[in-house]
Design goal:
The chain is an alpha+beta fold. It is 23% helix and 37% strand. A hairpin with a 2-residue loop joins strand 3 and strand 4.
């Protein structure tokens, strides 16, 4: 599996607008386009940070994100790694017995193909594997 870079770090928040305003005031980062990913029940707001981004995510019907906020409050939710060949990466991990949340890729925010690795496999960190959409403005150089 070839990991190319950290694609994004996602923070779960109850309200995107308030969180985006805080990030802008503190760090000067500007929000990209607000997106609702209906298939995941999630609202997403990317913030450009160099050739990567911070994703603010909020529940939009996603019970898991709602539970996350109730249990832990706002905070770091997952780290996303850009990989070359997502299907092959998943097949390799599956052959090694790594617990996966997604055994096949699904459509995520910004047109990415994504799949999640279960936190049991990584010592408690939710990891998203990302194969980006070539037209994503947050891909950087």
């Amino acid at each position: 599996m070839k990991i190319k870079k950290i694609d994004h770090v996602a923070f779960c928040v109850p309200r995107l607008g308030e969180a985006a305003a805080r990030w802008k005031a503190l760090f000067g980062v500007v929000a990209g386009e607000h997106e609702v990913v209906e298939s995941q029940g999630t609202e997403v707001l990317p913030l450009s940070v160099g050739d990567s981004c911070v994703e603010l995510i909020a529940p939009h019907g996603n019970e898991s994100l709602g539970r996350f906020l109730q249990k832990r409050g706002p905070g770091l939710h997952h780290i996303a790694l850009e990989v070359e060949g997502l299907d092959e990466a998943l097949a390799t991990l599956k052959s090694l017995g790594v617990p996966l949340i997604d055994e096949t890729p699904r459509k995520g925010a910004r047109g990415h193909r994504v799949a999640f690795v279960h936190p049991k496999a990584t010592g408690g960190v939710l990891v998203e594997l990302v194969e980006p959409d070539p037209g994503d403005p947050f891909r950087g150089a």
